[in-house]
Design goal:
Helices cover 39% and strands 34% of the residues. The protein is built from 4 helices and 4 strands, in the order H-H-H-E-E-E-E-H.
């Protein structure tokens, strides 16, 4: 799974064009993956689609409907309109959600 995360991160133009950033991103992603879901910071975006944003909260994911928001390096800025649902994450699925959160972090890099 870690190799898939690294491959995905390496496809980003920001990573391809900057060797130092590439090394930092891979090191950070590897450390996050090694540390696991339970040490992942609460509040990080796991995934998003349109105005629905899924955020880690302990062993759950809270899916929020958002208005006027942005995501930068996996952290959300904006106002929650309402909670759509809360999902408990089974132990067997935590690695997959962790991988998605790591990838989302790098795909939400604020463009200069």
């Amino acid at each position: 799974m870690l190799n898939k995360i690294i491959e995905t991160i390496n496809k980003l133009p920001e990573v391809q064009s900057n060797k130092i950033y590439s090394e930092q991103a891979i090191s950070d992603a590897t450390q996050m993956f090694t540390n696991g879901w339970n040490t992942l910071e609460d509040g990080l975006v796991v995934s998003y689609k349109g105005n629905q944003v899924a955020v880690k909260n302990g062993n759950t994911i809270i899916i929020n409907m958002m208005n006027d928001f942005s995501i930068n390096l996996g952290k959300i800025n904006g106002n929650v309109d309402h909670q759509v649902k809360i999902m408990e994450i089974p132990e067997a699925k935590k690695e997959a959600y962790l991988a998605q959160a790591i990838i989302t972090k790098y795909y939400t890099l604020k463009k200069a």
